[in-house]
């Protein structure tokens, strides 16, 4: 499955790095990835496949935590686009205009 790699954007000065374990993406170095803020708890729900293969409505915040294996979420936390499949952008609020 293709991951979300984008055309190089303008070099930014933000000191943003990805919060996912073992990921070394940095906004200043990896110009072809985009960084996403963690959704707020209770903000939105997404459909996520559960253990039984059924789609289940779950809080987007919880879904991200679960999928990205993150225990502690801070407001500064950013997740890089390498953890999203292109098809996942249907589920994201990336500026493609597609919304959950
Ligand atoms: Zn990352």
UniProtKB/TrEMBL annotation:
<keyword id="KW-0238">DNA-binding</keyword>
<dbReference type="GO" id="GO:0003677">
    <property type="term" value="F:DNA binding"/>
</dbReference>
<dbReference type="Pfam" id="PF05485">
    <property type="entry name" value="THAP"/>
</dbReference>
<dbReference type="InterPro" id="IPR006612">
    <property type="entry name" value="THAP_Znf"/>
</dbReference>
<keyword id="KW-0862">Zinc</keyword>
<feature type="domain" description="THAP-type">
    <location>
        <begin position="10"/>
        <end position="100"/>
    </location>
</feature>
<protein>
    <recommendedName>
        <fullName>THAP-type domain-containing protein</fullName>
    </recommendedName>
</protein>
<dbReference type="GO" id="GO:0008270">
    <property type="term" value="F:zinc ion binding"/>
</dbReference>
<keyword id="KW-0479">Metal-binding</keyword>
<keyword id="KW-0863">Zinc-finger</keyword>
<dbReference type="InterPro" id="IPR038441">
    <property type="entry name" value="THAP_Znf_sf"/>
</dbReference>
